[in-house]
Amino acid sequence: MTLRAIILGAAAGGGLPQWNCGCDNCNLARSGDIPAQTQSSLAISPDGLNWAVLNASPDIRVQLSNTHALFPSGLRQMPIQSVLVTNGDIDHVAGLLTLREMQPFTLFATRSIHEVLGQNPIFDALNASVVTRSSISLDQPFELVPDLQATLFPVPGKVPLYLEGETVQTDLIGEQTVGVALSADGKTAYYIPGCAALTPDLRAQLEGADLVFFDGTLWQDDEMVRAGLGQKTGKRMGHMSMDGPDGSIASFADMNIGRKVFVHMNNTNPVLRPDSAEKSQAQAAGWTIGQDGMEITL
Ligand code: MLT
Ligand code: MN
Ligand code: ZN
Fold this sequence. Notes:
Elements: E1 4-9, H1 24-30, E2 41-45, E3 51-54, H2 60-65, E4 80-84, H3 90-93, E5 105-109, H4 111-118, E6 131-135, E7 142-145, E8 148-154, E9 178-184, E10 187-192, H5 200-206, E11 211-215, H6 223-226, H7 248-252, E12 259-263, H8 277-284, E13 287-289, E14 295-297
Parallel strand pairs: 3-4, 4-5, 5-6, 10-11, 11-12, 12-13
Antiparallel strand pairs: 1-2, 1-14, 2-3, 7-8, 8-9, 9-10
Bound molecules: D-malate, manganese (II) ion (MN) and zinc ion.
C-alpha cells in the first residue's frame, strides 16, 4: 500500500491567473511565461484505487478531467469515494455544485461547516438520496476511504468571507477551519491549506510527520497591499505568511518533518515564479512549492 497525494489545485482562491487581476504573476501566467495554477484542492488515496478529494474548488471540473487517476472506471463508477471540506470558503466548497449528477459519495465536514452548507439551498443540488453528509467531530478518527484514516483538528482561522460580521476574529479555534491528519499503512500526512498561526499544539501535532501540505497563501503579510491590490493583509485573511520571523519557513525550521509542501498560494506570491529568489529561499529551507498535478507518494 502506498499513500498517494495529487495536488489538484495549488493556488488560493482566485487561481493564477485570477480573472480580474493584472498583477505581474497573473500577466505572466496569461502569457504562458509561468505555469497557471488552479484553485485549492488535494486528492488522496491509500491504494491508488479509492480516492478522497480534500476541498472542492470552483476548478474541480478541469482538475478531474486532467487527473487520470480520477477518471471514471465505468459508466457511472468513480474512484472518488468521498469529499472533505476544511472550511466553508468559496474556493473550497463551490466545486460541490459541479459534483451533482446523482453521483454517490460521502461529504465529510465538521458540524459547523455542514450547517453553513445546509443553510444554503443551492447545495441541495447534491441529492441527499446519493450524497451522504457526514458530520465529523474534532479529534475523532474516521475512515475517509477504506484503509485511510483521517482526523480533523482545529487550526486558527476565521469564518468564511461571506459570513464575516462587523468584527472578525482571525484566529478562532473551533470547527470553522480545520486541518486533516491522514494515516495509512503507518504513514502520516497532514493537509492544512489555511492556518493563521502555528500554535504550540499544532507544532506538537505535526512533529515527526512524514508529509505536511501547508498554507502558502502569501510570501509576506502585506504583499497584496504593497502590490496595490487592496488593504488586506495575510493576518486579516487568517493566513500566516511564508517569510519573516513569525512566518511558516522560520516556524517549521527546527521541526522534524519528512516532506513540507506549500499549497494554496495566492497569485501575488513570488514563489509561483519558477526562477524567483523567494522560491529558491523556500526550497533551501526544505520546502517544495506545490504545483497543479504534482504527485507525492509515501
Ligand atoms: C481565503 O483563503 O482566505 C479565502 O478563500 C478567501 C476567499 O474566500 O476568497
Ligand atoms: Mn482560500
Ligand atoms: Zn494577480
